[in-house]
Amino acid sequence: MAMSPDEQTVYKNIVENLSFMKRQQGVIAGYAVAAFIGLYGLTRDKIKPELVEILIWFVVAGSILCCYLIVRAQLGIASQRRAVRRAAKAHFSAEQIKTFGLSYRLPFLRDLDFVLCLIAVVAVSAWVVIYLWLHP
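-> structure tokens emitted (136 positions)
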């Protein structure tokens, strides 16, 4: 069954939103890494020993927040993929769904390797900054 113009608009917005949310995950991780490295660069020679613990907690909190936002975006992506799957089932044949890759069996897990790499990048950058503060 063909999509109405309104359905096409909604479908297009959902698909574009998927791309936007995937980019946001990378941007979140990139900003976190840049913030950690920038914070270390600004404080490496001037930091008082009593402030190191505060900065470490700041980096730990930032890492946790960043990982939460990455996972939250992944949950949003999974939700959008379920919507794409519902629309695909209603408007495309089984062959078209297979051809275009519109079937997501486990939407949250589809890009889990990508999500885990982003979380690892954030965690490793936080660990390096903390290590450098503790071992000047």
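Residues 5-134 form one domain.
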